[in-house]
Amino acid sequence: MNSRLLHDLKKLLGRDGVLHKPEDLMLYEYDGSVEVARPNCVVFPRTTEEVMGIVRLASRHQMPLVGRGAGTGLSGGAIARQGGIITSFARMNRILEIDAENQRARVQPGVVNSDLSVATEHLGLHFAPDPSSQKACTIGGNVSENSGGPHTLAYGVTTNHVLALEVVLPTGELLHLGNSALDAPGYDLMGLFVGSEGTFCLVTEITVKLTRLPEATKTLLAVYDSVDDATETVVEITARGITPAACEMLDGWTIRAVEDYVHAGFPLDCAAILLIEVDGLREAAEYEGAEVADVCRLHRAREVRVARDARERDLLWKGRKNAFGAVGRLSPTYYTQDGVIPRTKLPATLRRIGEIGQKYGFAIGNIFHAGDGNLHPIILFDARDQQQFRNAVAASDEIIQFCIEVGGSITGEHGVGMEKDRLMPLLFSEADLDLMRRVRDVFNPAGLLNPAKVLPTPKGCGEIHVRPVPATASGPFSV
Asked: What would you report as the CA-atom Rg of the chain, rounded to the nearest whole angstrom?
């Protein structure tokens, strides 16, 4: 680490605002992906002015700079792939303003997603985007990745709930994008920056929309002896013009892992379950809940339960949102994927995932947002075995390639990061990618901000180079 830069950072932030010892940096080598890379230092600003100072120092010393929220991301987005400075927003975690009358809130990037909903619940409001990691992930990270979640189907992803941003460019300039109005004039820079995965700016303040809590919610659990019956139910529900607030599916293997851990009341002998939620005015929720139950039975659901109260609803959702933690009890490592397909291709895609698992000898569990075709296959493997790691990556690539073949995409909500940059040419031409590079370079001309993310580099494009994996690590791959 450059001693002069380290001195300047400590002068700016104080000694307790900078980490640089190897034993401290180890904690920041990871996020929720299978990637590993160590930064040179980690800094903890408390104000926008301090962020601007960090950016100017990084620019002066030509040091890579990576923003980080809670580190729950699943594509390596918050990892310092080329070393450099990680800017953690853990101390910029204040809710600055709640405007209940206009259903707005102004927050710092380190505010935990679910904390905003807790803070506004007494006003009959909530922040609708709800990633499964919402009790840990931060709104700044949600903005960077344009995160989704189980209730994306009805409420949309993060970009649908962001009105304004305060951001710092890698030049140290401060920009204000959007405003509290629903449709700001001029170019839609908000749409460009939300989901830019930290390659355009560091976000220092966010104005979000708050959503009214629904008058009534109906949460249904449908149990199936056939995966095809469950997936065909999803197709039928949407074909009837019903848009559930959420429509989640877990396969039988995953259900058993979850139930052993959470005890949510999921049956252990079924092939799949659907967790479906409808909400709105009481009469509408009652009507749609009954119609959804009829569709489930029409497609041979052996049982359809309706949560009787908030406690039962919370327990069912606890099972869904703790599913990844449950799987972690069964394997040294697992690799969570994030493909997207048309809903009508769900049966064929799940069959193909099963075939790929058999080909490589892996157990693959399936948890996904069935309503919008966003799949999360979970490949169980042991990262200490280099061949298993290579095979897990190969199996993952085959799953994503099949998603593309049936009209889907390589990611729905986890982002591209350093995990899938080499797969971008499967979707985009070189002309497309060159345009994206030119747009990035307008805001990040020196390439110091979150380098080697999202867009493939010409050198080594399409290749996987597996570095030695520490015995206790999940295991990286790089392009």
From this structure: 22
